[in-house]
Amino acid sequence: MPSHARVAAAPRVAVRRSHRHACAPRSRRAKEARVVACDAASSWFALDPVLSARDDATAMASMRSDVALSALSPTWRMLLLSDGSVTRHLAVLYGARKTEVEVRWQGEADGVGRAAPNDVKMIKGDRIIRREVFLRPSALDGDGRGVDGDGAGATPPAVYASSWWSESEMKKFMPERESSMWANLRTQHVELYREIRTVYCGHSAELEEVFQAKGPFWGRHYIFWNGGEPITIVYEVFNPSLVDVLGPLEA
User: What is the CA radius of gyration of the chain?
Assistant: First the structure.
């Protein structure tokens, strides 16, 4: 097991702007998700954080001292801090056959637009590829529709994810472009360690359109390690509609 393979503790909190109810759940559902008009090649959906929480050894004490994180229900804390597969979690939570992947954009991250997490600097290679996807649990009958069965894209995605790879690692670990990261890695029997780096609560006008829900939203970013080397940095944001399967955000 690589030297990095340690159990990730819950995060240490560094609150940028304090507000007791800033990260309380506020959700509204719509019949269909609208397409957000933007330049995908230079814009990814980063949160404007109300708070961010870094992982370290004193995390639990810090989490207890912060109103927003300590108020989260155990199921939501587990989702944010778990080192398991989000794709698999969604399928289990929704009782779905699998999780459908919609690739929003994939191409070279040229440094234009919103800055990537600092950890992306750890990825080695001349060309860094950014991949953005929406994740939707599919129907149990395998008809390719969303969990509501109203046709492809009818249901707002449960998760938005952006990841950064070296071109060589992308080709090695993600041969099936339209499949999820978990599906690609599972079929190759790749042993990985997921290190949770930061948990966020923040706003995004674009994701309000995509999720059809009002922010703020909870998200996180983490590193996938393989053989002691980072292979990708992943940034995920969760739709507040997950309260339907996880229960209320607040304990």
Answer: 17
